[in-house]
């Protein structure tokens, strides 16, 4: 098992990199992006620093890798935040300068396609942070979600243990970024129903690994996932994207992980609340509940075959739904199925 280290944290007033290693969507939606930058300054007291490809759609993967490497190399930069996800970061990480990254560890925040970077830093021995997007979370319409911002603030500035909190309300129906007027009101939200626990009543403590389930599948296909022994004893975190993979696809991905031997050694699994709405699939609330039930059933079926004794927690707000809790990637986590509490060490 590779030893992992927590990079030093930024302080209010510091300069932080704002990068788009996945997709340059800030160039298409500057009104959302500028709102996110303003909140980064006003709510967190941090000074964002852009790089040449931050607002460029379709930038060459080598240029995006050059920007990300430069952000780590700059001694005046104390953290790195991804603006958003995308679908081709798998072509960027091979161009990163690993010697520079190892020599200049910094907290990296991102999710979705950024699972590529999180896993890359993990393999370099660096704890990163699953969650946080300048567009999606800092640029949330209406006002910031308090759970998201409290978690992000703690992850940015503190190093102790932090108790995750089940959301009292949730949403998976974002406002349309193409219409700037939608920034004036919050997204549609629904009452929360708490986490759903499954498996034995025991306490599991270890470090985390995982991320977006579809990207994990790509990483396995590209042979960028470590040996089974590297992940033994870890807590798997998984979530699904706005592409809404079917329950069948979720089961098949987990089955493939099981056949590789990855699932058997994981004592606990945290499953993000399933996103079940997208602009081209505007499901009703009942349809979303059915979708989420099918996703939970798919995970349960796969784990029954490959790890029936795992502690499983469903509907944790760690993925593509609103709010989003920040999870240290490769960092410590405690999953207490006796008291039904989840704590992370930032």
TrEMBL record:
InterPro entries: Carboxypeptidase_A_C_sf, Class_I_gatase-like, LdcA_N, Peptidase_S66_N, Peptidase_S66C, S66_fam. GO terms for molecular function: carboxypeptidase activity. Keywords: Carboxypeptidase, Hydrolase, Protease. It comes from Micromonospora rhizosphaerae. Transmembrane segments: none annotated. Pfam families: Peptidase_S66, Peptidase_S66C. The keyword Protease applies. Belongs to the peptidase S66 family. This is Muramoyltetrapeptide carboxypeptidase LdcA (Peptidoglycan recycling). Residues 205-335 form the LD-carboxypeptidase C-terminal domain.
């Amino acid at each position: 098992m590779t030893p992992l280290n927590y990079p030093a944290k930024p302080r209010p007033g510091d300069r932080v990199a704002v990068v788009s290693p996945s997709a340059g969507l800030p160039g298409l939606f500057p009104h959302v992006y500028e709102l996110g930058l303003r909140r980064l300054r006003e709510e967190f007291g941090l000074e964002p620093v852009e790089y040449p490809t931050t607002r460029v759609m379709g930038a060459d993967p080598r240029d995006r890798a050059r920007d990300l490497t430069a952000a780590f190399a700059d001694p005046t930069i104390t953290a790195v935040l991804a603006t958003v996800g995308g679908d081709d970061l798998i072509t960027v990480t091979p161009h990163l300068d690993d010697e520079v990254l190892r020599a200049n560890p910094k907290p990296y925040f991102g999710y979705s396609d950024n699972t590529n970077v999180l896993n890359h830093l993990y393999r370099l021995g660096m704890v990163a942070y699953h969650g946080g997007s300048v567009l999606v979370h800092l640029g949330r319409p209406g006002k910031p979600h308090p759970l998201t911002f409290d978690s992000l603030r703690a992850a940015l500035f503190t190093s102790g243990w932090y108790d995750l909190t089940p959301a009292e309300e949730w949403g998976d129906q974002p406002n349309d970024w193409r219409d700037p007027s939608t920034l004036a009101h919050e997204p549609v939200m629904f009452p929360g129903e708490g986490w759903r626990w499954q498996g034995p009543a025991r306490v599991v403590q270890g470090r985390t690994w995982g991320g977006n389930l579809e990207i994990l599948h790509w990483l396995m296909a590209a042979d960028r996932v470590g040996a089974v022994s590297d992940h033994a004893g870890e807590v798997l975190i998984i979530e699904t994207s706005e592409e809404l993979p079917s329950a069948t696809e979720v089961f098949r991905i987990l089955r493939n992980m099981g056949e590789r031997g990855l699932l058997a050694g994981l004592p606990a699994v945290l499953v993000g609340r399933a996103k079940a709405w997208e602009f081209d699939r505007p499901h009703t609330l009942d349809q979303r509940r059915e979708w989420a039930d099918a996703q939970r059933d798919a995970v349960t079926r796969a784990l029954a075959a490959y790890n029936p004794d795992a502690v499983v927690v469903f509907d944790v707000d760690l993925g593509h739904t609103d709010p989003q809790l920040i999870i240290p990637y490769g960092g410590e986590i405690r999953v207490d199925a006796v008291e039904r509490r989840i704590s992370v060490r930032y």
